[in-house]
Every structure is written in structure tokens, then in C-alpha cells.
Design brief:
2 copies of one chain form a homodimer. Among the domains of chain A are: 17-110, Beta Barrel (OB fold (Dihydrolipoamide Acetyltransferase, E2P)); 126-270 and 535-582, 2-Layer Sandwich (BirA Bifunctional Protein, domain 2); 299-426, GAD-like domain (Gyrase A, domain 2, 2-Layer Sandwich), CATH 3.30.1360. Helix content of chain A is 30%, strand content 24%. Chain A is built from 18 helices and 25 strands. An 8-stranded mixed β-sheet of chain A has the order 6-9-10-24-23-22-19-12, with helices on both faces. A 5-stranded mixed beta barrel of chain A has the order 1-2-3-5-4. A 5-stranded antiparallel β-sheet of chain A has the order 13-14-17-15-16. The longest helix of chain A has 23 residues, at 141-163. Chains A and B meet through helix 3, helix 4, strand 6, strand 7 and strand 8 of A and helix 3, helix 4, strand 6, strand 7 and strand 8 of B.
Chain lengths: 596, 596
Amino acid sequence: MGFEVQYRTHTCGELNTDAVGKQVVLAGWINRRRDHGGLIFLDLRDRYGLTQVVCDPERSPEAHKVATELRSEYVVQIKGSVVRRAVENENPNLSTGKIELQAEAIEILNAARTTPFPITDNVQADESLRLKYRYLDLRRPSMRNNILLRHRIVKIMRDYLDERAFVEVETPVLMKSTPEGARDYLVPSRLYEGEFYALPQSPQQLKQLLMVAGLDRYFQIARCFRDEDQRADRQPEFTQLDVEMSFVSEEDVMSLIEDLLITLIEKTTKKRIKQRPFPRLSFDDVMSRYGTDHPDLRFGLPLVEITDLAAAGTFGVFKSALAAQGMVKGIRVPGGGSYTRKEIDELTEFARTLGAKGLVSLAINASGEIKSPLTKFMSAEEVQAIIERLEGQAGDLLLFVADSAKVCNDVLFRLRTKLGERLKLIDPDEMALCWVVDFPLFHYDEEGQRYDAEHNPFSGMDEAHIERLDSDPLHIRARQYDIICNGFEIGGGSVRINTAALQHKVFSLMKMDNEQIQEQFGHMLEAFEYGAPPHGGIALGVDRLVMLFADADSIREVIAFPKTQSAIDLLMGAPSPVEEKQLQELHLLVRHEEKR
Amino acid sequence: MGFEVQYRTHTCGELNTDAVGKQVVLAGWINRRRDHGGLIFLDLRDRYGLTQVVCDPERSPEAHKVATELRSEYVVQIKGSVVRRAVENENPNLSTGKIELQAEAIEILNAARTTPFPITDNVQADESLRLKYRYLDLRRPSMRNNILLRHRIVKIMRDYLDERAFVEVETPVLMKSTPEGARDYLVPSRLYEGEFYALPQSPQQLKQLLMVAGLDRYFQIARCFRDEDQRADRQPEFTQLDVEMSFVSEEDVMSLIEDLLITLIEKTTKKRIKQRPFPRLSFDDVMSRYGTDHPDLRFGLPLVEITDLAAAGTFGVFKSALAAQGMVKGIRVPGGGSYTRKEIDELTEFARTLGAKGLVSLAINASGEIKSPLTKFMSAEEVQAIIERLEGQAGDLLLFVADSAKVCNDVLFRLRTKLGERLKLIDPDEMALCWVVDFPLFHYDEEGQRYDAEHNPFSGMDEAHIERLDSDPLHIRARQYDIICNGFEIGGGSVRINTAALQHKVFSLMKMDNEQIQEQFGHMLEAFEYGAPPHGGIALGVDRLVMLFADADSIREVIAFPKTQSAIDLLMGAPSPVEEKQLQELHLLVRHEEKR
């Protein structure tokens, strides 16, 4: 007992001209050492900033002697007095830029080997090296700022919801496996041979049960897990802001979340919100105009359908798409009329890799002259009608895809994104948010020969459409809302089903038999019989949100310890083999498959 | 689009005399229905309170008609006007007790079956029924209040730490298995045959790596997992407030946490803190005085060693304990001099079940007369010396155990607790907190023939004791501190090792070879070579803390969805068998053992 050590009196971001003349102690890492005119200059770094330290052999030979040993990333404690820098030596980029510390004593608290990459922002190191040495990567200012921003965003979320009577409830991580939805991560039980827990894909069921419990307003910053192949920017575990409310309609949830998002953007970024209130677009509209249900609204370039006009003339590409119940859809590239053959070929090749048979182009040169294969197969009026539909101007390029609706939309959605970037239509300081609503409740799963929930089987549906459950399930509108930011789906939710009969009917349409329904969702159906209030909610993807706020390229940049795209933790070395004893206790054998 | 439904204008806890005359809409659950004098009275309940509703067939025959159909736990929406209750009908226990709602329209939003137990606090239902219907159990006011209290405690923790520049960082749940410590829950990898992730027992390593990363002050409300047999009040998953700080000594961590705990108690309870600042007791002292390292300081009854005095005389029980290098320790039971033979026998039996061979008693009756087997084998002076050592008074009972130190302490620790309750020495409104420090770094594990870390292998040690690593490991003092409240260890932490050489030495003493050290902890040792600052931290058990604050009997009462003592989720039905396809994808076979 008797713990008197004090490592520092101030942090490295704290001292300014008010402190001049004071004796202080700082501790931190050597960010840089320069030897200049007999003096040694040290930049001492901690999370809070940088302070310049001068070691003068005349004033303190001992401190100077220790300083000669210091190398980058050494951890030191420095005692000294704060002096004002000469005006010409001030550094306006540092909060401590008007002062420096005259070192009187330096103690090396820990030495450091040469780091595998420099601790600076413009690091060229391979991502796998950065992940293996994540504790060094996180020393870089941009990474540190991402982690601090994430903390701040999540803190504001919590404060905002707490002020509005929401209760944060921790739901279990050891849950029950359900074959519905994505693939579960399983956790073998030691006590029950052959039985498993599953990690939650979301706390969906439990948050609904909390509404049945009368908690009224729930939220949680919840860890969720999906064992999916890690194409795209995904992680095996991710974080969502999970919200559920009782006695609400869509409007209540959407206006709450809209206001929360505005608050977050205003408090943590300098970004502008493109449109307030956020536009609300129907699923049909966004699919038609943008070919996707998560459109980037920072720029225009809408897709335009010309299926009706494409029926005219004798152009084979159009004709065969129409014959196969397909469609023809185009996009206008402003100023693209001067693209070279090579540029157009590149775009065509891009479309081909996405599944299109090709692109039909129509260039209008500066003097209004038209260059297009269409002119051979259509009358001038017919071509003109198409140009007018797309609002083509002199100097523009029009590009068309003739195919199934799915291919048209997929290809033109990505082509639009590519053109938006190429034409520099995207303002990086702008946040374009919108709601997408009026989703269909079901789609038809050809492979499984059944209806499947477009979002999740708990989504409610328009009262007036309930009767279509028997007659026309594909035309039931879900009480679903997705929130989109700059082309990313950052969240989604719905007003839920709250009666057992309706919930049972939805499961039946998904081709579950009574036994499966009881086994997997019996507890939900039962809960709905004990007084389930009307309720609805939403989940926002925290990783993606922070990524957008931080202008990061990947969610891995805003997660302290992410896994690779192939689900490996390079720092800890996970997953890894375990001891035979552990497997025995879990009643498991590894099934060694033949290597192919 | 167009979401206009509004289910309520106020909550059921909100209306008071200010609202008299207003038209309002409430929504909630029927808590109780009474038919009285032609009127129907409804208590409408939501999370926020109760509001009395009157249905008068004269004023609104329709509302009255609906009211006749209502039963407990129906979910309804009621429109009406707020009226003042007659003074004699006021209910001072309700925030809404001076008003009632005159119903004008009632809509049944959802019906309810009769619940398996009543939604009231004094419920006699079996715990397994309560867990199966947790969504109903959570409707009971005491359970709801526990969940709300938990939210509030955790919110205050976060606010407190955020204000002090701590950053909350989410660490992964899919981690690497290490054979050290408790048993891991494993998660099989689908992508890597025969490999596994493990759920973290704590974020210990990652929080230390965050210090190496320069994050300076970290915290997390972290979910932790241990696959241990669920004796006592444990859960497979539990929550801790995890804290780590750089450039600190014990004092910094302890004073921060002490102030946080005081803040929490003052803001969320009406409890008194017995002593401030919290006493700091050494491990040796508490083991000696209380027989445990987590003493309940709400009452006295210290244990007193009399090994030296027991050497006198010829009492065989004492003699044989001493001959076996044991000790003799006693406790004074104030007023116990009048206990009957039967009462003393009961205490003796209790001691026997805990492993003692028996209890030696010494009763002093009101007139100072002594009744004890000791009087036959010791002189009056020798007996008197023992009485004086225990500060025995007329009317007291002294009880002794003669055995190994471990048995003496175990038995007297529990006997002391039992006596504290029996003698009603415990004030339920008092919080007695203390720090226990000066722990040994190692104990010797006879079975494994090795030294094992008393707390965890990352704990630092007194500088002056480092040399004992080679000569006398059992007498190294750890820089460890535990925080105890009312006899429960609610947290513990240490100042850590931050150099690779020292850390390696500790692992070696634990009989790990170089390969094991590299395989399991190579990343930690490597990190310590890149400039690891001095650092330390602590973890507080959130479940236990909330339990103590809520005066609950078990942590299951303060967890929204706990598992049973045998690790079963009775609500969801987990663990459960999974489909063969899932096992195949995970390269696993279940090893069906012969049933015995």
C-alpha cells in the first residue's frame, strides 16, 4: 500500500501559453526526434496531441544524454518547464504550437523496436500487416480519430434515446438457432450432447418480446453475427443500433430516427444534409429511377424506361428483349457525346461484366448530330421520341440496356454510380438521405418454391392488403421502411405483426409446417396471445454509419479489431485448432474431409 | 405512405390535476377491472404508471359495453376526458391518483389469454415458469424496475467515464481460444476445417493492446462468457464494466472507481455508505479477520486466532490440529451464552457440513460462569487468556475451529455470515465497501505442479519483489486490488506487466514452454516490444452490482433474459439440436456417448 507514482501532470495536447513558466511532467511516445544545432528536439505524442520538447545539453546534460538514446515510439516521461516558442517557431497546426517544454529530466519507461510501418497517416502498408499489428495501426491519427468518432456517435445515440425514455436492455448472445435467414454461428453445449446455442443475427425476437413485456421503448447497441461468405464489405460480427417502440406507427419510428440522424450529422461532422425532411420514396419508384432500393441521391442521372418506345422500328436487340418480356431502359450521360469509341467500349465492357449483353449507345454531338445504331432501324421521329424521354441535349450520350428488368436495373444501377463518380457529380461533404417505403412483403423464391419475406417474417402489412394473403401475396405492401444514405442502406425496420393468427399465416406462406412453426417460433406466437401491443422498430448499422461519417473506405477502418474478408483475426490468430480435450467435452469430432 | 395513426396522447403515468378537463387518449394493459355500482373501473397500466378509467353506461354506453368484455392484460386504447377524483377517492400511492379518466371510447387492440401467473409483485410462481414466460414476468413492477435501474446504472457509468475522456471501444466476441483460465465457449469455423473461435472470458488482452495503441483511457460494457458449471449464482454470459488506463498507478484506478461507485450509489439508491474513503485492507488481514478475501464489513464478529494460546493445556482437539501444522481460530457470538444445547448443536452441524470436524464452544453465562470442554484440559488462567483474546463478555458464546488454516477460514467465514444474519447485525440499507490489496501474485497448484496466477497472469508486481521470481515466487506481492461490497467481490484489477521479458518469465513459472507461450500469447509479448506504456485497469461485475443496488436475491433478477442454473434458455428453448446440414458445413460430427 502507498501508491504515490504520478506519471504526468498534463497530457500532450493540453499545454498552451497559460502554462508558460510552469514545471510539468508529460508522458507519451516519441513521435519524432530531430538533432539540430546541438539541441535535440522531441515531439512527444499521446492520444490528446503533440508537445515539442527541447533538450539543451547546456541546461540539462543528463536529460540531453538520455535524449540521445531515444528512438521513435519509445515511451518516456519528461519533466521540464514550459516556455514560449519564438514567434517564428510557432506551429499553428498544434494546440500546443506556441509553447515547448525545456527538458530537465527524461526517464525511459519502455523501449520500442522499429515498427513494421511508420506511425503516420499516409501509410502504404499492406492491410494484412496493419491488421496483424493493429495496436500500431491504431496509433495513426486517422485510425485513432475513427475510434474516437465511433465512441462519440454511439454516445450521442445513447444520450438521445435515454432522454426520450428509451431503456437499453442487454439481450443474450447465446441464443437459439433458427434455420430462417442467414447462416448462424453455432456454439456447442457441453452440458447437452449434440445441442447448440447460436449467436444472434439480431435481437429481433427478443426486442419484440420486450414490447410484449411492456418495456414500451427499447434500444440496444447490439452485436450481431452472420456466418456468411465475406464478399463485399462485411464482417462476421457487426454492431447495430436496435430500436423498438410500442403503440407506434411508421411515422413515429421514422421521425425519431430522422431527427437522431440529423443530430448525429450536425454534432459530429461538417457535412451538409442534402434534403430535409428526408425524401420518402416508394420501392417501385426507386427501382424504376435508380435500379436499386438503396439509391445514391447525391446526384441525378435517373434511369428512364423506354420499353414502349423501343417497340417501334426493327432494332433486333430491343425486339428480342421485348419478346422475352424484358424491358429497355436508358441513362443520359451529360457531356458524353464526345466520348471516344474506346471510352464507350470500356463502358460496354463494364456492363457486360455485370451481365448485360451490351450497351446501345446514342451520341448527340455538339451540333445535334446523332450517332447511334438506332438510326438504322428507327425513324428519325422514333429516335427523337427516345431522346426526348431521356431529355437528351446536344453534347450528351445516351446509353441503353435491353434485357430482363433485373439485368436492366442491376447494370444501369452500377453504371449510374460509375458515371456519377466519373462525371464528378458527387460532393464528398454532402449527405443525401432518404427513406424507401412501400416494399412488397414477399418475393417468390423459385428455388424453394415458396414465398419468402422480403425483409423479415415479422414485418406487418397494410391493413387493406391482409386479404391478399390468400389471393395475391406478391402484391401485399409491407409496413417496412429503409433508410438510405449516399447509396448505402444504413438501416431498416417495420411496424410488426402482433397477432398470433397473422404471424402464423405468414410462416405458412413461407412453407413452414405447423411443427416447424411451433419448434422455431412457438414462443413468439404464444407471446402474442398474452396482450401484445402494436409495435415497430428499426435497426441502424453502426459500422456503416461511422464509416460514412468518417469518410472511410471500409467498415474495417472504423472497427478497432476487425477480421479480414476471409474471417480471420490476424492479430490474435483466430480461428485456431483447439485441444482434443475441449472437443471431447463438447461431444464433437472434426469431420476431416478429403482435400480435393 | 401517409402514416397518421396516433395511439396515445399521454402515458399512463403522466396525467395529473393540470390535465383536468382535457381530452386525452391512453393506451396500455388492463391491470384490473372492477364493476361497482353500475360503473366499470379499469386500471390501465403501461411502463410509466397506472391511470384509473371510469366507464359510465349513462355517459358512454358504447365504451361501457366494450369495457364489459375486457379482462386482465387486454391491450386497449381509451379516449376520454380527465376529471378530478373526489377527495375521498384519491390514491396517494399513484402519481395519477388525484384524477381519473372518464371513458368515451375504448378500442381493444389485442386480447389476452389468462396469464400463467398474476402480474403482481408478490408472485409465488416457480422460477422456471417465470423464465419461460419472461415477457410476462417482466411486466411485474419489481422486475420492470430492476431493468430500468440497470439501464440507469449503466448509463451513469458511461456518462461518468465519457466526461473523464474514456473511450468506449467494442472488442470482438469471436476471439481465440486459450487453455489458460476458465473453460471457453467455442464457435466452430465453417471456412477453416477443425478450427474454432472462442467467446471472450474478458477483453483483458485487447484492452491492454488498446493501451499499447495509445488509446490512453478505455472502457467497455463488455459481454463475457465462461463455460463453467453453474454452481452458485452464475450465468454462462455476464456483463462487466471493463476499464483500462495508461500512465497510472494503483491509486489512479482505485480513486476513479471509488468515486464512480459513490456516484452510482448516491444517484440510484437511498443506501448509506458505511465508510468513506473505502477502507483498504491487505489480503493477509482480511483472511485473518474474516477468513475470506471478500468480507462483509456491514458487521463485526471478527475471527480471532488463538493458535499460540491453544498450545497450552492438554486439549486433544487443539493439540492434534497444532501437530498437523494447523491453527485454532475463534469467533465471539455476542449474547450467545444463553444458546441452548440444540442451538449449539445446529451450529456445529453447520460447521461439519463445511468440512470442520466440529466446533469447540465456550459459553459465559450472565454471571460470568464458564461452560466449555476447555475447562477440563486447561488452567483457569489459560482459559481466561483465550477469553480475553476474543474480548468475551458475560453472556457471550465463543466458538472455535481447530484445523488447517483453509478449513478454519472457510468454516468461520461462513459461520460469521450466518451469525451476522441470525443476530440481525446487517442493515439492509447500508453499503459496506472496501478494497482488498497486497495479494500474493502466485499460488502453488499442487495438481499441476506449477505456480499459477492468483488473479491473472498479466498482473504486475511490486518492483522490489521482482527478484523473488527466481527465489521465492510465493512471496511476491501483486499490484492487484479487489473491490468488495457487502461480502461480494464486485470487481478487481491490477497494474499490469508491460515488458515482454517479465511477462515471459511469469508464463514460464506457470510451466508454459516457449512454444506454448508463443502460440497463445506471442502477440502480447510482441506488442510489449513496440512501446507499451505503464498501464492498469479494473473490471466491475455489472450483474452483481445491479443485484446489490436492487436488493435482489440473484443476478437472474436483474438480467432481462437469463438462463437457468443449468444454462438453459427456457423462453427460446436453447441450446437445441441443429440440422445435419449445419454440422456438415462446420465439419463436425456429434460424438454420441453411451448413456450410462
